[in-house]
Amino acid sequence: MNINYLNRLGFSLLLLSSGYVTAATVTSEQVLDTYADIAHAGYEDALLTAKELKTAVQALIDTPSTSTLDNARNAWLQARVPYQQTEVYRFGNPIVDDWEGKVNAWPLDEGLIDYVDGSYGVGSEDNDLYTANIIASPSLVINGQQIDATTITPELLGTQLHEAGGIETNVATGYHAIEFLLWGQDLNGSNSGAGTRSHTDYDLDNCSNGNCDRRGDYLSAATDLLISDLEYMTNAWLNGGDARAALTAENNKAGLAAMLTGMGSLSYGELAGERMQLGLMLHDPEEEHDCFSDNTSASHFYDGLGIQNVYQGRYTRVNGSVVAGASLKELVASVDESLANELEQDLVASVDSLNVLLESQNEGKAYDQLIAEGYTEGNQMVQSAIDALVYQTRNMERAVAALDVSGISFEGSDSLDSPSSVFQ
Questions:
Q1: CA 383 remoteness from chain centre
Q2: Beta carbons of 267 and 277 less than 8 angstroms apart
Q3: To which H or E segment does residue 191 belong?
Q4: Where are the beta strands (DSSP E) in 205-361?
Q5: If pLDDT is split at 50, 70 and 90, which confidence band does 24 have?
Q6: Fewest CB within a 10 Å sphere: which of 143, 303, 328, 393?
Q7: pLDDT over 80 (residue 347)
Q8: What are the pLDDT digits (tens) for 273-304?
Q9: Interval 46-86: pLDDT, tens
Q10: Angular region, 26: left φ>0, alpha ψ -120 to 50, beta rest
Q11: What is the CA radius of gyration of the chain?
């Protein structure tokens, strides 16, 4: 984890939690401009760190060693920091939501990509490709069609193999495919430890597990594709870009609806529900977002921080500079100052709760250990963060009403809305 980045944040959260807001004269147009500016900066940071990841990946492929593998892994971890802060843009912006599966689809049947442990596949038998092993297979059959995979290219991965057979867990591209190629499977269950892939999996002269040339080709192609996908979304938030234009294509109220939908759906159904409550209920280490690297607590923290960024109208870039402007917080305060302050404090509380999980990860206790059955203290840490996320969503719903924004429905989760159905 980039400790310097956390220090620069200062966390900026101390600043945000130290004072209440007062009503200010801002317009919805100004607020939406800030929202779009932060989106562009976040995706641009994700792009820049993906390019740094590509440099590190190429060094690993060219000169496989323990150090080049460690450098590539660290570059991947750094790349997650800005990207996770952009997830708040998903649910309210169709352009983002339709694209997101290319770069952050999860969970994945990793046997589609590479070799896996002999115990792999329980529960995946309904997917004919769950052990297809693209890296070991220059030819595959998908839905009766022969696919030539002799040369592994970004086009092959993105257009023919990603979500092959129409199955969402056939993830061939994006951060998590790259994560698997850098760490390998995490076979530790709820015990300490992440994946332990060796650098020799890329060493042509001392190759472990076969197909080291194709594994390098796959890693390189997947990283190139990630860069091109992030370039697309970065440009989409420029002035005149499709995502920025769509934000106000109908009217400013629709743009505010997109902001609030993204905040509420990520906070409630996606993060509190699908990514946290479900795994805690099942005590299942497979319900980890960054499961190969044991980076899940960091990903959850930066998701929560991204929600706060949107409300505060403020984003700290990876180089330490700040993008800030008229905020949703100020707009809410112009109609209900008390509510604006309550929601601000809710957001500070949820980020603080998620930071407890991040601190645990930094101290060697990963998320899959925290949700383990019987670990009361860890379970409570996770539940406290879930509760904070759920609680803040209630005041987001009040903000929707205060701003007289219609047509909003926050994404739900059976784990929160119908817990008994999870076990049926």
A1: 20
A2: no
A3: none
A4: 314-316, 322-324
A5: low
A6: 143
A7: yes
A8: 999 999 999 999 988 999 999 999 999 999 99
A9: 999 999 999 999 999 999 999 999 999 999 999 999 999 99
A10: beta
A11: 21
Give φ, ψ of 146 to 5 degrees: -75, 125
User: Which residues, other chains included, contact 127 with Cβ-Cβ below 8 Å and sequence gap of 6+?
Assistant: 109, 165, 167, 169, 170
Give the pLDDT confidence score for residue 351 in this predicted structure: 98
Cα separation values, 236 from 30, 40, 96, Å: 19, 8, 9
Q: Is the pTM of this model over 0.85?
A: yes
- Distance in angstroms (rounded) separating the CA atoms of residues 366 and 75: 19
Q: How confident is the model at residue 407 (pLDDT cuts 50, 70, 90)?
A: confident
List CB contacts of 209: < 8 A, sequence separation 6 or more.
115, 201
Whether 367 and 294 have beta carbons less than 8 Å apart is answered as yes
- Residue 228 tokens read as 């091109």
Angle at 325 between CA 41 and CA 341, to 5 degrees: 115
d(Cα 62, Cα 71) in Å, to the nearest integer? 13
How does strand 314-316 pair with strand 322-324?
Answer: antiparallel
- Amino acid at position 219, single letter: L
Q: What are the residue ranges of helices labelled H in 63-85?
A: 66-85
Contacts of 251 (CB under 8 A, 6+ apart): none
Cα angle 384, 388, 392; round to 5: 170
Residue 140: in which H helix or E strand, if any?
strand 139-142
Q: Which of 30, 48, 101, 40 is nearest to 236 (CA)?
A: 40
Residue 30: pLDDT over 70: yes
Cα–Cα distance between 370 and 365 in angstroms, integer?
7
The span from the CA of 173 to the CA of 218, in Å, is 10
The total number of residues written for the chain in this structure = 424
Quote the tokens at residue 160: 């023919």
C-alpha dihedral (134, 95, 289, 169), degrees to nearest 10: -40
Task: Tell me what pLDDT residue 126 has.
Answer: 77
